Amino acid sequence: xxxxxxxxxxxxxxxxxxxxxxxxxxxxxxxxxxxxxxxxxxxxxxxxxxxxxxxxxxxxxxxxxxxxxxxxxxxxxxxxxxxxxxxxxxxxxxxxxxxxxxxxxxxxxxxxxxxxxxxxxxxxxxxxxxxxxxxxxxxxxxxxxxxxxxxxxxxxxxxxxxxxxxxxxxxxxxxxxxxxxxxxxxxxxxxxxxxxxxxxxxxxxxxxxxxx
Length: 212
What we know:
This protein has 212 residues and is mostly helical. It contains nine helices and no strands.
């Protein structure tokens, strides 16, 4: 199920470097934390992690190969994900500013809905499947089970990325109260997060390189 120790250690090191490098998932999670607080940020981490895990399973099952040979399938999923990100951004732009609550910021959305948003944002990014398909085979043992190794390595990567994403949430939650002590600052926090989501949607629609 896992490659030999040297390959596994190389994979863990490479995964840690990639997970620590800010990408679309990190921007999404940090923006959600700044706009709605630590609890929403952690719910987003869990949703994104499960969405990425679903993409890892899809890559192991050959979904990435389908996207590679069928531009129509890739395009449909890519535009669906981009549209959902833009939709989330517009909702944040139109949301009323939360009332100041001292140093604490009360989440303005149910955690179940925040989790769902994070899951769909990650799931509807077909480039994640292509990323797993391109990255994982470099650390797989040719004599082992391709299915087992790809699934196990994908799960390891998602776990590492989830841990680093939690660190980003904790860091952002330290800054968030300072940005949300007045209604005006909170409103601009929502708009900053909304702009980030819209920008991610545009990048998702226009980009072609696999990213996390």
